Amino acid sequence: MSTPCIKCGNPNPEHTMRFAVVNVNSTSTTTYQGRKQITTTTTNESMAGVDKCCVCESCIRKKRIGHSIGTAIATFLAVYFFYIIFAAFFTNKKYFNSHVPGIFKVGALLSAVVAIIVFIVLMQTETPLIGAMILKKKRGKDGKGKVFAPIEPSIYTGKGSTQPNITAFMTKTGLKTQVANGIFFKFIASGTGSQLVDQMLFEQQRTTPNDITHDNTVQ
After folding, report:
1. What 3-state DSSP class applies to 148?
2. Tens digits of per-residue pLDDT, 25-45?
3. Taking a C-beta distance cutoff of 8 angstroms, is the pair 41, 28 a contact?
4. φ and ψ at 3, to 5 degrees?
5. What confidence tens digit (pLDDT) does each residue in 42-79 have?
6. Which of 2, 4, 171, 189: CA 20 to 30 A from 115?
7. Side-chain half-sphere of 33: how many Cα atoms within 13 Å?
């Protein structure tokens, strides 16, 4: 018997996806050296286990469109707001007041262009990454503060290459520490990630291994 779609319950979902789950916690501290302000961000990542879900193509498509539209709208508003603030602060007050309609139109046009670009880019998001969003939301409180990193090698393999790339993996998952290296080589570069996840879920019944832990401090 097939596992139903985690989102809508479709009994025959097209996609089965597996993930390495990582706890992520970032803290920032600010110090001063004379008048110079230095902000230090410390990121802690630790392996939280693995997870697996089935999702139908319809739910993937709806999530991809919804995420793309929502992010594009947020981008439009953010760019428009900062453009108007920038124009208000860095142009002559008399000029600004006499050109308000034009400034607003230019701001709206610029914001629309950026938002459209963001929408187009996000609509290219690979299915496993969309699945990670759906799974994280379905896990509710258990998904808070976690990254669900797909272990599908193809989404980290560039054009003209036959091997997944660690840089692409870190960029697409947002992982920043040596934990990413451990996951990449254990689950992805090895080519046996799917079997390993299934084995871990079966044998450990989703325990929380902590064999991969690393702190990364950047300034």
Report:
1. strand
2. 878 788 777 777 888 778 889
3. yes
4. -80, 130
5. 888 999 889 999 999 999 999 999 999 999 999 999 99
6. 171
7. 3
The 8 Å CB, 24+ separation contacts for 116-125 are 116/72, 118/68, 118/71, 118/72, 118/75, 119/68, 119/69, 119/71, 119/72, 122/64, 122/67, 122/68, 122/71, 122/72, 123/64, 123/65, 123/68, 125/64, 125/67, 125/68
| pTM of the predicted protein model | 0.79
The answer for residues whose C-beta is within 8 angstroms of residue 219's C-beta and 6 or more apart is 38, 39, 40, 41
CB 135 within 8 A of CB 52: no
Helix (H, G, I), strand (E, B) or coil at 164: coil
Task: Please identify which residue in the block is written with the tokens 């961000």.
Answer: 41
CB 119 within 8 A of CB 147: no
